[in-house]
From TrEMBL:
Disordered, as annotated region: 313-338
Protein name as catalogued: Acetaldehyde dehydrogenase
InterPro entries assigned to the protein according to its UniProt record, in alphabetical order: Ald_DH/histidinol_DH, Ald_DH_C, Ald_DH_N, Aldehyde_DH_dom
GO molecular function: oxidoreductase activity, acting on the aldehyde or oxo group of donors, NAD or NADP as acceptor
Superkingdom per UniProt: Bacteria
Residues covered by the Aldehyde dehydrogenase domain: 15-132
A UniProt-annotated Pfam family: Aldedh
Keyword S-adenosyl-L-methionine applies: no
Keywords: NAD, Oxidoreductase
Length: 392
């Protein structure tokens, strides 16, 4: 467990341990090391008795896990932007963001780290944020908070993690109203030395104002490239075209629509797999893009019977030409924009106004025909078909 959370971690481990053993799990199947040092953690990760490491933590710890040589599945750092587009239900969007950022005082890595607002709705968003408990720091206060958030070595100060907005303002040396729930600093730049454009596991947010959703797209990519590639972003909008563009182009594995990011990212308010280890995939330096659940921890043996011979594979006309399969909408309330298992678009009142066509959904490319040799030209043809479909 992290040293700053040792007591509550050990308490949680004890509760889970008792429940597991009462349900028939082997004694000692749930436990924790008592020496909370880097050396002890390294020895554990290198142990021959460890079959798999599930690494959830900072970038340094995740790298150490992969470097141990033990098979590893990892989570990664978040830095999720929340984009409020002009068609959004602004009071609801603000409520979602503040609810998310104050849940466990912002320690969930999927929580919002910055807000991006279109200029045409900025005044309304600003008023709503203040009405719901946000405090906008002035330039001097923002500088004091930045000095508290970021240590001289460029890492986020662990002393701010999970603290309330009131406590953080006192630590930084300025006063805020007793009703303050989150602290916000207006920003125009993104860099590794700017803590407002990085992951902050506490109720502090940066805020960026952009001219339109296209400019917001660029800002989102800039923020994620700075930190949080492969993790999460959230959009508040009623515009299905904007949703589609964000889903197609942004370098994250979780795109959340009109929901609190902290709760949606872990599956509480969405149909994404419930989990607290959120993989960032190859783009984020990890081995999995999943919300890591029980199935990720299983090795499943497959048994395959022969059903055709190699001669049948080569014989012209021996089997029908595979056809593209169009992904159909999934019915049911409260579905995520792409279903976690099937990547189905939800059938909702919002999407009913935009009838789907073959060009509007992901479709598989036509497979190489059975009467053709599988060669370089045919592979190129299939790849070209895939790219043409994605281009549409």
């Amino acid at each position: 467990p992290p040293p700053g959370a040792r007591q509550c971690s050990w308490k949680a481990i004890e509760i889970v341990k008792r429940a597991a053993e009462a349900a028939g799990a082997p004694a000692g199947s749930v436990d924790a090391i008592s020496q909370l040092t880097l050396e002890a953690t390294s020895e554990l990760m290198h142990s021959k008795d460890v079959s798999l490491i599930l690494a959830t933590g900072g970038e340094g710890m995740v790298r150490a896990a992969y470097a141990s040589g033990t098979p590893t599945i990892s989570g990664g750092p978040g830095n999720g932007p929340a984009f409020i587009e002009r068609s959004a239900d602004i009071p609801h969007a603000v409520k979602d963001i503040i609810t998310s950022k104050t849940f466990d005082n912002g320690v969930i890595c999927a929580s919002e780290q910055s807000i991006i607002v279109e200029r045409c709705i900025y005044d309304e968003v600003h008023r709503e944020l203040e009405a719901q408990g946000a405090y906008f720091m002035n330039e001097s206060e923002a500088a004091k908070m930045a000095a508290l958030l970021l240590r001289p070595n460029g890492t986020i100060n662990p002393k701010v993690v999970g603290k309330t907005a009131l406590y953080l303002s006192q630590m930084a040396g300025f006063c805020v109203p007793a009703s303050t729930r989150v602290l916000i600093a207006a920003q125009t730049t993104v860099s590794h030395s700017n803590p407002y454009s990085r992951e902050k596991l506490c109720p502090v947010l940066g805020l960026y104002v952009e001219e339109d959703w296209k400019a917001a797209c660029h800002r989102v990519v800039e923020l994620l490239t700075n930190e949080g590639l492969g993790h999460t972003l959230v959009i508040h909008t009623r515009n299905q075209d904007v949703i589609r563009q964000f889903c197609l182009e942004k370098p994250v594995n979780r795109i959340l629509i009109n929901t609190p990011a902290a709760l949606g990212g872990i599956g509480a308010t969405t149909n994404i797999t419930p989990a607290l280890t959120l993989g960032c995939g190859a783009v984020g330096g990890g081995s999995s893009s999943d919300n890591v659940g029980p199935m990720n921890l299983l090795n499943i043996r497959k048994v395959g019977y022969g059903v055709r011979s190699i001669d049948e594979l080569r014989a012209p006309g021996s089997r029908p030409e595979p056809q593209p399969t169009i992904v159909s909408p999934a019915a049911g309330p409260n579905r995520s924009i792409f279903d976690d298992e099937r990547f189905n678009a939800p059938a909702t009142a919002a999407t009913a106004a935009h009838p789907a066509s073959a060009d509007d959904r992901f479709a598989s490319a036509a497979a190489v025909g059975a009467d053709s040799e599988i060669n370089e030209q045919n592979v190129e043809r299939v790849i070209r078909q895939v790219l043409e479909r994605l281009g549409k």
